[in-house]
Write a structure and sequence with these properties.
The structure holds 2 protein chains of 2 kinds.
Chain A: H1 2-9, H2 15-30, H3 37-40, H4 44-50, H5 60-86, H6 89-94, H7 100-134, H8 140-147, H9 153-164, H10 169-186, H11 188-195, H12 205-210, H13 217-220, H14 228-254
Helix pairs in contact in A: 1-7, 2-7, 5-7, 5-9, 5-10, 7-9, 7-14, 9-10, 9-14
Chain B: H1 3-33, H2 42-47, H3 51-72, H4 76-89, H5 93-106, H6 114-120, H7 132-141, H8 144-160, H9 165-172, H10 185-198, H11 202-215, H12 221-232, H13 234-246
Helix pairs in contact in B: 3-4, 4-5, 5-6, 6-8, 8-9, 9-10, 10-11, 12-13
Classes of the chains: A mainly alpha, B mainly alpha.
């Protein structure tokens, strides 16, 4: 399993990924001057949601780091398994003493490591540039809050890997991108519904649809570093990742790989 | 895939699903706790929701407002109007039936109960079903001003339930024995003439035609209501006439 992960991670040596990493670092330098996320929103509801009422604020630069990691998750995560299937590499790998679900988890870990590398590179560049320009280093709490956003990558990579088990590489990329767009657009709806006065019961088929998409707004809300919310967020991420990987594993096990 | 593997997959999937719903619920509560909902106008929240949910919420809010209006209504007229509003705004037929039931049982002779009679007209499956005879009795008790619109509503209902031409004719026949007050009755008499002709009842068709001719010199319903209003409040008539002079 870890051999598969290592093999996947070694794709970072490819020129395309090296260039992406350099670009990521360059953009990190450009985004180092941005403020907190709540300052970017004029909308009072969203700015209150992401404000640092409890805990530490999320910086706008972290959004940029997540976007870069999402792009890697889509390009690498959605294409890796379909390419292995197309080139028959998967048949070669499965002749080794490795089960299909171990292969899947290995791929997941490898792609997650790639995305995490980009995320960390972007964040480190931002903070280092900020320190060089202003002489000010963010507090440990703020730094921890930014790096804790790495947990967003778990369901993202799980989703892309899962979709890639069903369709070809290009289709998987498009579906992954569309899925993320839908997830982002649905995110604010349940929070808004929860804010309606008591006694108003909203019954809509849309709410059923909402549960099919992870809610990324929860990762940016303000909360204390150690508390019920942070623990819930961890469980939320693990649960979504497990669901996606279960579906992917079931598909891979029952699918004809020839 | 063997049975044991399937069971393992199911257990893992269901456990993950349970954790997903539980943690999502916790996170949603905490997200709302971050926002000071007292300072936020409900319209701001509704504008962010999709139209289907917005319509549903607006409908609930409007129903709540109408229920409050009904609770505050004291006089019979106010209660009938409030019940009518609730019935019109309700989407479910059984809710409409419930409100109209109350109108027709408690306020059967009130002039504003017309909608309830129209609702139950020719509805044999409903408890308070109204036949044409009972509907005529109600119309005869109503003031002259209201009768035209009630006749029209009744005719509309008969067409909606696809009543037979004999039933429509028997519904409209009493109009031949009364004097029309407005020009607008001409349309009803035209329809009556058409029905009579379809049954080859020339005498009835001729009579309907005579009634049509008698409507020609009458004021329209709108003019009649304006004149009535002017008689009530002569100041309005003076204001209107001075405005015309200035022009």
């Amino acid at each position: 399993m870890f051999a598969i992960a290592e093999m996947t991670f070694r794709k970072m040596k490819e020129p395309a990924f090296v260039m992406m990493l350099i670009l990521c670092v360059a953009l990190g330098v450009l985004f180092s001057d941005t403020g907190t996320l709540s300052e970017e929103f004029n909308d009072s509801i969203v700015s209150q949601l992401v404000s640092s009422r409890y805990g530490y604020p999320v910086m706008t630069s972290s959004i940029f780091a997540i976007v870069i990691s999402t792009l890697i998750a889509i390009f690498a995560g959605a294409t890796d398994i379909p390419r292995d299937i197309e080139t028959r590499m998967i048949m070669f790998l499965l002749t080794k003493p490795i089960r299909k679900h171990e292969y899947l988890i290995g791929k997941f870990i490898g792609i997650l490591a790639m995305c995490a590398l980009f995320f960390i590179a972007a964040q480190v560049t931002v903070f280092t540039t900020h320190y060089i320009r202003t002489g000010e280093l963010f507090s440990f709490g703020v730094l921890f809050r930014q790096f804790s956003l790495i947990i967003v990558l778990f369901p993202l990579v799980g989703m892309t890997v899962s979709i890639s088990c069903f369709v070809a590489d290009f289709t998987a990329m498009i579906l992954s991108a569309v899925y993320i767009l839908f997830a982002v657009s649905f995110s604010i709806i349940p929070v808004m519904i929860q804010m309606l006065p008591k006694g108003i019961n909203v019954v809509s088929n849309l709410l059923l649809l909402y549960y099919l998409f992870p809610n990324f707004v929860y990762y940016f809300q303000s909360f204390r570093t150690l508390g019920v919310v942070s623990v819930s967020l961890v469980f939320y991420s693990i649960a979504i990742t497990t669901l996606f990987l279960c579906i992917a594993s079931y598909r891979l096990t029952n699918r004809d790989l020839i | 895939m063997n049975r044991k593997t399937r069971v393992v997959y199911c257990v893992i999937f269901v456990t993950a699903l349970v954790f997903y719903f539980l943690s999502e619920s916790m996170l949603r509560q905490s997200a709302v706790a971050c926002v000071d909902t007292e300072d936020i106008d409900i319209d701001v929240i509704l504008n962010k929701l999709p139209s289907s949910i917005k319509d549903s919420v607006n409908h609930t809010l409007e129903m709540a407002r109408l229920q409050e209006a009904l609770a505050k209504a004291k006089a019979d007229k106010e209660r009938v109007v409030a019940l009518n509003n609730l019935a019109f705004f309700s989407k479910e037929k059984k809710d409409k039936e419930r409100y109209f039931n109350e109108i027709i049982t408690k306020y059967p002779t009130n002039r504003n109960s017309a909608s309830a009679y129209v609702f139950f007209l020719m509805e044999k499956d409903l408890k308070n079903h109204v036949d044409i005879k009972r509907f005529h009795e109600f119309i005869s008790r109503c003031p002259t001003d209201d009768q035209y619109s009630i006749w029209q509503q009744g005719l509309g209902k008969l067409r909606d339930v696809k009543a037979s031409k004999e039933q429509q004719l028997s519904y409209l026949e009493p109009l031949l024995n009364r004097k029309p007050e407005f020009y607008d009755y001409i349309r009803i008499y035209e329809y009556l003439e058409k029905l009579a002709s379809s049954f080859k009842n020339d005498e009835l068709a001729e009579f309907a035609k005579i009634k049509q001719d008698s409507c020609i010199d009458l004021p329209s319903y709108e003019q009649f209501m304006m004149e009535k209003e002017n008689k009530k409040d002569p100041k309005n008539k003076k204001k209107r006439s001075t405005k015309r002079k200035k022009k």
